[in-house]
Amino acid sequence: MSSSPISGNASFSSEWSALLECASPARDLQKLASLLRSTDGNRLLVLAGEHGVIGHLAGCLRKLDEDSVPPGIRQTLADRQRAQVFFSLRLTAELFRLLELFSSQGIGGLVVKGPVLAVQAYGDPAMRSYGDLDMLVRQCDIRRATELMSAAGYAPTVSLTTIDAGKIPGQYLFSKPDSKIIVELHNDHTLRYFPRRLPLEEFFARQIRVRVDGHDTPALSMEDELVLICIHGAKHFWERLMWIADVAALTSRQTAINWERVADSAKAVGAERMLHTGLRLASDLLKVQLPGKVQAAVRADGVAAHLSKQCCKWLPAGGQAPPRLFERAVFRLRMRGGFISGPAYLLRLSLWPTEEDWQDGTEESRHLLFGAVHRPIRLARKYARRTKT
Question: Which residues are paired to 136 by β-bridges?
C-alpha cells in the first residue's frame, strides 16, 4: 500500500468525498457506491488511516456489494479493523483494572473520550479509533495516582519530585514499556486549552455511568463531553475527520442531549465559539440536523463560519499540511474571541511552559520565567519544521 504523504484535497478529491459520506450519520449508501467507482483503493485506505475513520469506512463497505468496493482493499481493511478491535479490547480491559485500582484507594476518576465516547456516539467501543486512555483525576490525587500507576507497571513522564515541586505539565502521561498502552491523567490544572479553568467538581457532580463491555464506567455527562470534544478539536485545528465525526455521531445518536446545559457548560469555560465551530463543521460536512434554536445560534456566529471554512482548507490533508505559525496564532485568537480574552488566551498558550519546555537539559529551564521566554522560540522551531516537512 502506498505510504506517500497526503498533500491536499486536489489529489484525493474522490477519496475525500467518499470518506465524508462514510463519516456522516446520514450517509447515503447509493451515493457512496457511486463515489467509490472513481476512487483508488490504496489511497482511500491511506486517507482513512490519517483521519482515524477506518471503522467508519469498514462499517460502510460491509453494507455494499462486492463490485462496489475498490478491488483489493476489502481484506486489508478487515485486517486493519480487526487489529483496531483487538487493541481496543486491551485498552478497555486495562481501563477497568485502573478504575478498580483507583477506587480501592479512594481516588475518583472520570473517563473522557476513548471507549466511553465510542459507546455514546456509535454504540460500539471498538468503532472509534483511539490509541490511549484519558481520565480526569483531581490534582490533589495526582501524587497517589502516580504511585499506583508506577506500582502497576507504568513509567511516568512526570516524576514524583516534579509533582512535589508543584510543576504542572500538559498532562500526566504514563506508558507501559512492554506494550503500546498509554494513559493520560488530566484535571483543571493541566487542560490549558480550556479558555477558562474547567469546573472540575461540577463535572464530577454531573457524572454519569456509561455501560462499556458490561461495566458501568464513570464518565462526563453528554453535555460536558460534547463541549470537551469541541475544545479538543479546536486545540488541534480540526485536522482530522474523526473529531468532526465524533461531534456528528454524538449529537445525532443522543437525542436526549439538553442543549441549554450544553450552552451553559460552554459558557462556563468560555468555549462558545469552539462549540459553534465544531457543530458548524458537523452540520456542513456531515449533514447533521441540529435542533432549530441550536442551528440558528450556530449560523448566527459569523466568526465560527469563517473558522469552519479555514478548517476545511487544511482538513483533507489529515494533518500533513498544517496551518503555518501565523495562521495558528490568528485561529486561536478568533476561536477564543474578544479584544481582551482572545489575546490573553493566546499569550497564555504561547508563554506558559509545559513538560516539553522543561526537558531541554538546562538547569535554567526549571524556572518559570526561562520557560516563558523559551517556549515561543521552541514552538516557532517546531511548527517551522512541520511546515517544511
Answer: 110, 186
What HEC string does the chain produce? CCCCCCCCCHHHHHHHHHHHHHHCCCCCHHHHHHHHCCCCHHHHHHHHHHHCCHHHHHHHHCCCCHHHCCCCCHHHHHHHHHHHHHHHHHHHHHHHHHHHHHHHCCCCCEEECHHHHHHHHHCCCCCCCCCCEEEECCHHHHHHHHHHHHHCCCEECCCHHHHHCCCCCCCEEEECCCCCCEEEEECCCCCCCCCCCCCHHHHHHCCEEEEECCEEEEECCHHHHHHHHHHHHHHCCCCCHHHHHHHHHHHHHCCCCCHHHHHHHHHHCCCHHHHHHHHHHHHHHHCCCCCHHHHHHHHHCHHHHHHHHHHHHHHHHCCCCCCCHHHHHHHHHHHHCCCCHHHHHHHHHHHCCCHHHHCCCCHHHHCHHHHHHHHHHHHHHHHHHHHHC
* Per-residue pLDDT tens over the stretch 83-119: 988 999 999 999 999 999 999 999 999 999 999 999 9
Residue pair 245/229 in contact (Cβ under 8 Å)? The answer is no
Q: What is the pTM of this model?
A: 0.89
Tens-digit pLDDT profile for residues 249-293: 999 999 999 999 999 999 999 999 999 999 999 999 999 999 999
Asked whether the beta carbons of 158 and 149 are under 8 A apart, the reply is no
CA distance linking residue 209 with residue 221, whole number of Å: 9
Q: How many Å apart are CA 316 and CA 112, to the nearest integer?
A: 26
| CA–CA gap between residue 19 and residue 12 (Å, rounded) | 10
- Whether the CB-CB separation of 329 and 346 falls below 8 Å is answered with yes
Contacting residues for 297 by C-beta, under 8 A, at least 6 apart: 263, 276
How do 133-136 and 182-186 pair as beta strands? parallel
